[in-house]
Amino acid sequence: MIRLRTTLVLCALVSLFLLLRFTLFRQPVKLDLSHSVPPQSLVTIHNQSATASKDKKPVLKLNTQSLGCPTPRAALIGIFTVAGADAATKRQLLREKYRLLNAELPEAQKIDFVFFFGNANSYQKDYELAVEETLFPTETVVIEALEDRDSGKILEWFKYARTQLYVRHPRLQNEWCLRYRFVGKGDDDAVFHLPRLSKMLIDLPTTQSHYVGRNFADDAHGVVPHMTGMLNFVSADIVEWINFSPIPPANVNGIEDVKLGTWLHQADFEFNRLNKGLLFHDLYESPMFSPAPTTPNSLVIHWCKDNARMFKCLTSLFDEDRLPQAVAYRLTRPTSIKNRLRQFGVLNSTTSSDFQQASDSLHALYRDSLSTVTLKQIDTILLKPIISQIMTNMSVTNASPSSVTSVIDDVSVRIYLSQREAGDLEALAIDFVLRDIIIPEMKLYLDWGQSSTAARWIQTLLSEKENRRLSRKEVETVVKDVLGGKKPVQPPTPLKKLDDSAATVKSNKS
Question: I need a labelling partner for 124 at 20 to 30 A (CA). Which of 166, 308, 344, 496 fits?
Fold first, then answer.
C-alpha cells in the first residue's frame, strides 16, 4: 500500500513538473507576419444610405481588419525606370536620400519604394538588370513583358502592388491586415519630399477612396482628367478594385497616367479626387506644362533629367541649396566657372582673368566658415556683367535694381544645361529685358511668342552693328512692329553664333 502511494505521488510530481516546464519554458509561438496574397477580392461596392441624394455613386469598402494588426505604412511607390547608366545614377541618388529620410520617420509615416522595370530587350540590358537585382533584390522588380511604358506596364504595377499590400492577421484565421494605406506610381526623374507627402497621405480620412496627384485634362483632344505621371496615389481599396474589375484589362495601351485616369473615369463608385496643383510641379526651367519655383510646401519636383538638374531638385526641395563648403569651393574654381560659362555660350568675350575675378568674388562670400554660397548666387555673379552689357546694348539706362535682379533670376532658371542649348543666352536675356523692363515701361502687352520673336529680331540687328548698340527708339520700333504684325516670326539673317573661345573670335576677325 505504501509502495502504491509512493508511486502515485512520484507520478503526480513528474506530471506537475512536466506541466510547469511546458507552461513556463515553452518557446513562444512565432506569428507569420510575412505578406501574403488574399485569394479573393477584399473589396465590395456598397450603395450609400437612403438619406443620401439619388445622384450619389456607390462607395468601395475594403474588408480588412484593423484591431490586432501591425501599423500600416503610409505608402508603397513603384518608380517606373529603365536600364541604362543615366537612370542607374538617378536610382542610386534616390535610394540613398529616401533611406535617410525614412530612417527619421515613425513607422506609420514611412514610405517604401521599388524600382519597376520592364524586361530587357538586349544582351547588355539583361546584365544591367541582373546587377540591379543582385545588389538591390528587395527594391528591384522586373516584369516579364519587355520594357514599354505604354503597353500595360501600369496594370502590371498594380498587380504586383497587390502582392505586397497585405499581411495575414496575427491571430484571426482568414483575416487580413493592410501593410500600406496607399499605392503610388512615380517617375525616376522626380524627387519626392517624403515627410510632407507622408503627412498629407495619412491625414486623409480612411472612410473614403482617394486619387491624389496633380490633375491634368485636355477636353479639346479628348484627354480625360487624370493625375500626371510624375507621382500619383490611389488608396488600397482602389488597388483592389483595379485587380478585379474588367475595366482596366480592357484598356491598357497608352500613356500610363492617362490609363489610370481613364479607368477611374469609367468606374462607377465615388472617390475623392485630390488635386495638389503646383505642389507637384516641374523644375522651374522645364519646358513641361507645370514649371514652378520650389517653395517650402513643394511635395514633388519633376524633370530632374540629368545630374545637374537632379542636384538642383534635391538641394532646393530639401532646403539644402546652401552648398557644403567643399562643394562650393570646387564649383567656384576658375575651371568650374569656365565650364559653366561654356554652357552659357559666352566664352568669346571672357578671359582667364575674368574667370579668376569671378572665382575670387564667390570665394569672398564664404570665407567665414559659418556661411557658404548657393547655386543662385554663383549664377548671379556670373550673369550680372553679361546681362548688364546686354542692357547697355539695348540702351536701358534707368532700370531699377529689382528689375535687374528679376532679369538675372529669370535667365538663371531658364538656362538649360544640355549642350544643344548653349549659345541661346543672348536671345534669352534680351527676351527678359524686354519683358521685365522695356515692355512694362511702354505699357504694351506681348505674349511669350511675340516677346521671343522681338528678342530674335533685336539679336539679329545687334549682330549687324559694329558697335553692338541699338538706340532705345530702334528697340521700341522692333517691339511695335512685332506687335503690329509688320515683322515676320523669323529674322531675315542667321543668328550670330557664339564661339567657344576668345582665340576663335580673334582668328575669325583676322
Answer: 308
